[in-house]
Amino acid sequence: GAVVSQHPSRVICKSGTSVKIECRSLDFQATTMFWYRQFPKQSLMLMATSNEGSKATYEQGVEKDKFLINHASLTLSTLTVTSAHPEDSSFYICSARGGGPGETQYFGPGTRLLVL
Amino acid sequence: LAKTTQPISMDSYEGQEVNITCSHNNIATNDYITWYQQFPSQGPRFIIQGYKTKVTNEVASLFIPADRKSSTLSLPRVSLSDTAVYYCLVGALNYGGATNKLIFGTGTLLAVQP
User: Fold this and answer.
1) Residues of B in contact with A71 (CB under 8 A)
2) What is the per-residue DSSP string for A28-51?
3) HEC letters along chain B
4) Residue A100: pLDDT band with limits 50, 70, 90
5) The pLDDT of residue B101 is above 80
6) pLDDT confidence of residue B24
7) What mean pLDDT, rounded, does chain B reach?
8) How far apart, in whole angstroms, are the C-alpha atoms of residue A68 and residue A87?
9) A5 interface with B at CB cutoff 8 Å
10) pLDDT at B1
11) How far is B67 from chain A (nearest CA, A)?
12) In which band, very low, low, confident or very high, does the pLDDT at B95 lie, cut at 50, 70 and 90?
């Protein structure tokens, strides 16, 4: 299947700092990228959907000013957690898919964020 | 968006065939059915995807009845390494846009014992 990478795989930061997570589709052009968050022993929760070149669409309850998403190219999307707090500590997972009929959504390996 | 219902957990033994059924009663005409496997602290891994009838690949089969209101993931001979959470998702994958997002349900925790 297609490959989606994330960087960094894990990050520890101090409360109040901002953290940027990159998501790349390595062998296909991702028309749409998605960002999920997963807390321990819970399912993935969709945070936002982004299409290349346009603003992201956020799910209800997700603060767009806190979780900044940029999808500047067909292979790269970034999620910036601004002014991170301990409650933002979670596992962040991106996914990507192309724009053709029946295109499968592929997921990255995830980024573990710990805010102290 | 179509909602899915799966058993919370299942137990099996090595070498057995495991069938996990998912209900999606309000699936839309252009929705596909996709199954993912997730290990702890990893992103979901694509297993199989289908629209109707039966789909088979090197790791699993997917059975979809004519009314498409349910689907069954079949893992032929499980091993200990198949212990994971399995998610069934439905969504329209043939168009771009925010409406075609995959919403995760609770998933099924499959525990394979020796």
Assistant:
1) none
2) S--SEEEEEEE-TTS--EEEEEEE
3) CCCCECCCEEEEECCCCEEEEEECCCCCCCCEEEEEEECCCCCCEEEEEECCEEEECCCCEEEECCCCCEEEEEECCCCHHHCEEEEEEEECCCCCCCCCCCCCCCCEEEEEEC
4) low
5) no
6) 93
7) 91
8) 17
9) no
10) 57
11) 19
12) low
Q: Identify the three-state secondary structure at position A86.
A: helix
**For residue A99, which residues of chain B lie inside 8 Å, CB to CB?**
95-96
Strands of A67-73's sheet in order across: A4-7, A19-25, A76-81, A67-73
> In the predicted model, is pLDDT for residue A2 greater than 80?
no
CA distance B54 to A14: 50
The amino acid at A101: P
And the tokens for A72?
Answer: 């500047």
**Chain A contact for B114 (CB, 8 A cutoff):** no
Chain A interface includes B50 (CB < 8 A): no
Q: Which residues of B touch A43 (CB under 8 A)?
A: 87, 104-107
Measured between CA atoms, the residue of chain B closest to residue A50 is: B98
Q: What percentage of residues in chain A have a pLDDT greater than 90?
A: 74
Q: What is the pLDDT of residue B98?
A: 46
Q: What one-letter code names the amino acid at A73?
A: S
Q: How confident is the model at residue B99 (pLDDT cuts 50, 70, 90)?
A: low
Q: Quick check: A90 contacting B, CB < 8 Å?
A: no
Minimum distance, in Å, between the CA of residue B36 and any CA atom of chain A: 10
* pLDDT tens, position by position, A75-92: 999 999 999 999 999 999
